[in-house]
Target: HTH-type transcriptional regulator
Amino acid sequence: MKMTPLITSAVMHFGEMGSRWGFNRTVGQILALIVLNEEPISAQEIADALNISRGNTSMGLKELQSWRLVKQHLVPGERKDFFIPAGDIWTLANRVFEERRKREIDPTMSLLRDLLLDEAANEKEANAQQKLNEIHDLLESITAWSEELQHLGPEKLNTLMKLGSGVGRMLELKDKLLPGKNSVN
Model:
């Protein structure tokens, strides 16, 4: 499979972004190649296009399957394994966020809960627990809000994102019109 310059550029960038999303460069490139391809793509085509070993390709595909981002696709008359995205772009983005929450936020929330249950031994620890409680409450709010967002369909999410800056301006206007009221920051 020969990639066009546009697709090559996008695939290479996805590889660089992969580490920021929670997986390595090669896995990011494999995901981009599968998402950007119109047709199901075989593991061998992926290996050839990215100039990586078949073993590295298989490991990357297994990781993407564990994240539920790609799935196998049967092509009639073919014996090879083919792969396609496991949903539309919104679905894939939600799954990346969900996996990152499980791997990063959930363990942090567990640690914070444990630390907040401990009895403070002195004033320093009491102060630290107060800050940890603020972090816990913030993460809890963000998690609850993101879970609500995940239940919205792509159309509603798109509309909400377009409203985003307008909502901020409305809150600022409310603060100006109703001074002294508790503002939402």
Observations:
- The CA atoms of residues 27 and 61 lie 7 Å apart.
- Residues 5-85 form a domain with the Arc Repressor Mutant, subunit A fold (CATH 1.10.10.10).
- The first helix runs from residue 5 to 21.
